[in-house]
Amino acid sequence: MNTEWALAWMKGCAEQAHEHREELIELDRVIGDSDHGENVDRGFRAVVEKLEADASESIVDVLKLTAKTLMSTVGGASGPLLGTAFLRAAKSVGGEALDGAGAAALIEAALEGITTRGKAAEGEKTMVDAWAPAARAAREQADAGAGVADVLRAAADAAAEGAEATIPLVATKGRASYLGERSVGHKDPGAASTALFIAAAADAASAVKEG
Ligand code: ADP
Ligand code: MG
């Protein structure tokens, strides 16, 4: 995968954030402050605008500009967390082209950025509960010799399952932790958006592969 994939991924994130804006707002209304859908919609819209204005020449350029834009346009916890994720992801990319192992390393690096920044462990009902299983699934596929599209598809499926699995959890990090036991029974908005963003990565890989 190349720069075209990274650009398609960010465009896909923007489309997903926009399409699922109300749903993410609703999830955040129940256990947070109703802004997650708005935050990621605004953030990725700004990312796409910046990418269109700037001639990014590599995957690294695209991911770095994405990180910078998310950090400066998204208020709330998710801006710095996703910003750090994309910054670490950028740093994980070695050369011009990404292979299956590189895609797994990218997801692992994103997860590491989020945990370094937010100090949440798995099971605390945050976006980590989607990124962590995604990273494991990606690594498993890459080790089995899978290419980028299959690695990312496995990661996306695991992220979606991880997001669903936040429903019975008690939030102990972030705004939802103020609710304590009352956070049980609701999906974490950041885990839900993560599943959308990783699915966008997989869709972009399939599209670039076929196109
Ligand atoms: P805010 O909580 O400031 O309103 P958002 O609504 O945009 O910001 O994002 C909320 C999401 O951020 C949560 O659903 C959760 O997934 C994620 N989050 C919050 N705190 C942390 C943390 N310390 N580590 C990882 N993710 C976190
Ligand atoms: Mg919020």
TrEMBL record:
A Pfam family the protein falls into: Dak2
Name of the protein: Dihydroxyacetone kinase, L subunit
Entries under SMART domains matching the protein: Dak2
InterPro entries: DhaK_L_YcgS, DhaL_dom, DhaL_dom_sf, Dihydroxyacetone_Kinase
Keywords from the named record: Kinase, Transferase
One of the record's GO molecular function terms: kinase activity
Class of the enzyme per the UniProt entry, highest EC level: transferase
SUPFAM superfamilies attached to this UniProt entry: DhaL-like (SSF101473)
E.C. designation(s): 2.7.-.-
Transmembrane domains' residue ranges: none
Superkingdom of the organism of origin: Bacteria
Domain DhaL: 4-203
